[in-house]
Amino acid sequence: MLLAEEAANIGAFEWNIQENKNIWSKSLEKIYALEPSTFGGTYEEWARLVHPDDLAQAQQDVQKSLKTGNFTSKWRVVWPDQKHALPLRQGKSAF
User: Fold this and answer.
1) d(Cα 9, Cα 54) in Å, to the nearest integer?
2) What share of the chain is helix, strand, coil (3-state, %, to 5)?
3) Residue 39: Cβ-neighbour burial (10 angstroms; 0-12, 13-18, 19+)
4) Which residues 6+ apart lie within 8 Å of 48 measured at CB?
5) How many domains does the chain have?
6) Nearest Cα to Cα of residue 30 among 2, 69, 62
7) What is the DSSP string of 61-94?
8) What confidence score (pLDDT) does residue 79 get?
9) Which pLDDT band, with edges at 50, 70 and 90, does 91 fall under?
10) Domain that holds residue 33
11) DSSP state letter for 25
12) In sequence order, which residues have a C-beta less than 8 Å from that of residue 22 and are 6 or more positions away?
């Protein structure tokens, strides 16, 4: 799966909402310009990586996805060097 993620420039994560644990693939960390295994693993840590002007909409889209099972959203990522990127977020929830 790692090779497929890298080739397609996509990432994956597993989010345990009850425990507030979010495990990211190395490819997803790379998209966010993080060093491998440096993502803090919480919802709050993810929120710190979203551009402040986009955070409310991103959070709303996440909540909607928990109800519908589908996820599509756009937000800017604030990279460690303070530059911004706008990758498309799309996915499917599994419970």
Assistant:
1) 22
2) 35, 25, 40
3) buried
4) 78
5) 1
6) 2
7) HHHHHHHHSEEEEE--EE-TTS-EE--EEEEE--
8) 82
9) low
10) 2-92
11) -
12) 13, 14, 15, 16, 39, 41, 42, 43, 45, 46
Here the CATH number for the domain that contains residue 20 is 3.30.450.20
Q: What is the C-alpha separation between 15 and 30, in angstroms, rounded?
A: 18
Q: What angle do CA 44, 36, 5 make, to 5 degrees?
A: 95
% of the chain exceeding 90 in pLDDT: 38
With tokens 């498309």, the residue in question is 88
Of the pLDDT bands very low, low, confident and very high (cuts 50, 70, 90), residue 41 is: very high
Mean pLDDT of 52-60: 93
The count of residues in the chain is: 95
Residue 89 is encoded by which pair of tokens? 């977020």
Identify the helix (H) or strand (E) that includes residue 42: none
